[in-house]
Amino acid sequence: MTDLAPLLTPEGRALLDAVRGTDPADELAVATRLRREHPAELVSAALGQARLRQRAAVKFGAADAGRMFFTPNGVEQSTRASVAGYRAARMKALGVTSVADLCCGIGGDAIALARAGIRVLAVDRDPLTAAVARANADALGLADLVEVREADVTDVDTSGYDAVFVDPARRGGRGRIFDPEAYSPPLSWAIGAALAAPRAALKIAPGVPHEAIPAAAEAEWISDGGDVKEAVLWFGAGAPGAVRATLLPGPRTLLGAGLPDPAVRLVGRYLYEPDGAVIRAHLVADVARELDGGLIDETIAYVTADALRATPYAVAYEITDQLPFNVKKLKALLREREVGILTVKKRGSAVEPEELRRKVLPKPHGRNSATVFLTRVAGAPTMLVGAPAGPAAGSVTAGAAVTAGGAS
Ligand SMILES: C[S@@+](CC[C@H](N)C(=O)[O-])C[C@H]1O[C@@H](n2cnc3c(N)ncnc32)[C@H](O)[C@@H]1O
Prior knowledge:
Elements: H1 5-8, H2 10-19, H3 27-35, H4 40-65, H5 72-77, H6 81-93, E1 98-102, H7 108-115, E2 119-124, H8 127-139, E3 146-150, E4 163-166, E5 171-172, E6 175-176, H9 187-196, E7 199-204, E8 218-224, E9 227-235, E10 243-248, E11 252-255, E12 270-274, H10 276-280, H11 284-291, E13 294-295, E14 303-305, E15 314-324, H12 327-336, E16 339-346, H13 353-360, E17 368-377, E18 380-388
Parallel strand pairs: 1-2, 1-4, 2-3, 4-7, 8-10, 16-17
Antiparallel strand pairs: 5-6, 7-9, 8-9, 10-11, 12-14, 12-15, 13-14, 15-18, 17-18
The structure holds S-adenosylmethionine.
């Protein structure tokens, strides 16, 4: 799609309604039928849009996504509604009434800001993307609050706004960009724009090295449903130099107290797996203190403690066995315990979880479930066997789950 205008005509809108929810398997038949009465190009554009709306539903919910417009990159790069809504609420709580959204994409953040009652100047230099952002503000009844401007953000005067929000493009023709100076616009430009504004928020990749965080910023890592989604640098807001982990849907937010690394101790009765946002924000020490726990290894982000304490920032497991890494021993143990459902988690181990599961449970038929952690304990490759503890325990119902830890 290079032009949105044909889809916004009455004929385009009628076609969009006609193809709503089309199963990919039926697309050819639907296209053939519709092409008898409509231009082939418009039919393909409508079908393409229906596909993008289906993909976007996970980020925006089916109701909004079904009314919005997307480009393939726009779906990919947009902020999901839960995260954008949280950020907009934080802006609102700071007293912000107007925001220059620099690099607005299809409008994921602009929509959330407008829904929080904030006036938005939404800027994108890509003509199609800017047209889509405009159509989205219209479609969601937010046009009064959102002015979309097709321009290069480096040419825009933001002096009349309470805050700027910058979400640079972090994907190029060859995929994801890791060097912040290769972002468009470069991170250094975005930081300059942020420092010049009364308040600012700057969205960056969650893997950003902590050394790259300017001293004037508060850095916040945000996860949703346990998956880390992004990091944001706040200027003129929060605590400069501080780090924060925020867990959605809560929101539950943990502001770092600048604690030293927790001590390594023997594995206790419980093992806690911190949320990814806590790990990325380097706040494992704060969670360990809350749990009166320590680390199982100085390089591994698992906390161990003797007591079970409720915390939103980590998932608790009761550990029943600690074995040196040994596939045969694990297999024998699982057989003895009649385990048929095994969740494999790992942190600090190169073992492929799915492969291990196939080896230790070739024919799963036991009636019990267990979780095995492939990790290191005080430097030694170790298997910790246990089960979820606390309120979330027993939520695994059937099948075998395999998860691998991200950053250790
Ligand atoms: C990550 S996306 C923004 C996503 C948006 N926050 C959302 O939730 O939909 C980045 C956008 O920046 C735009 N962009 C990149 N460099 C730009 C520049 N110098 N001026 C204006 N827009 C730019 C791209 O066209 C792209 O749409």
